[in-house]
Amino acid sequence: MKKLILILLSFVALNLSAQEKIVVKKETSKTEQQKLTQGNNAKTLAKTETQKLSKQLELTSEQEARVYDIFLNHFENELKEKEKIKTLIKSKNKENREEIKQKIAKQKNGNNEALNSKLKEVLTAKQLEIYQKETSEALKTKQKKLRVKN
């Protein structure tokens, strides 16, 4: 009987410790992602995105330079828009909240469409196909995470 209880307790302890490790991994990945996006300027964001695309799509040096310029311009515009939205949020007007939500949605859609059209000019057909596949998968996983949260 003692051995049976001891075995059961060891299984419970093993399962609890395994679950803790999974939670820690999720927390570290979230903090790493926040470090990448928050508090950075457009240059560092453009550099990290260019490096990521360069690894995924095997960009040439010329393509890399052009993609960096595209991302730099994109992130500069995005950061300017974020500042405008922050000032609108600080106004604390309830009527502005719906307006702010609409502006954010329009901004994201417009910026992403402009970014994609500029990247189409730089990337080859094969690279563009891979890029679109990766971005659509990332968007789907992001939407799933948002659904789970809500």
Structure write-up:
With 150 residues, the protein is mainly alpha-helical. The chain has one domain (40-149). It is built from five helices and no strands. The protein has helices at residues 2-37, 42-57, 61-90, 94-122, 125-149. α2 (42-57) packs across α3 (61-90) and α3 runs antiparallel to α4 (94-122). The mean pLDDT is 78.
Summarize the entry for a quick read.
This protein is mostly helical.
User: Any low-confidence stretches, pLDDT <50, length ≥5?
Assistant: none
Measured as a percent range, the helix fraction is: over 70%
> What distance separates the N and C termini?
46 Å
Number of strands: 0
Q: Measured on Cα atoms, how large is the radius of gyration?
A: 22 Å
Largest sheet: none
Going by helix content, strand content and strand pairing, the class is mainly alpha
- Principal-axis shape: flat
| Total count of domains | 1
Give the SSE map.
Layout: H1 2-37, H2 42-57, H3 61-90, H4 94-122, H5 125-149
Helix pairs in contact: 2-3, 3-4
Key words describing this protein structure:
150 residues; mainly alpha; 91% helix; 0% strand
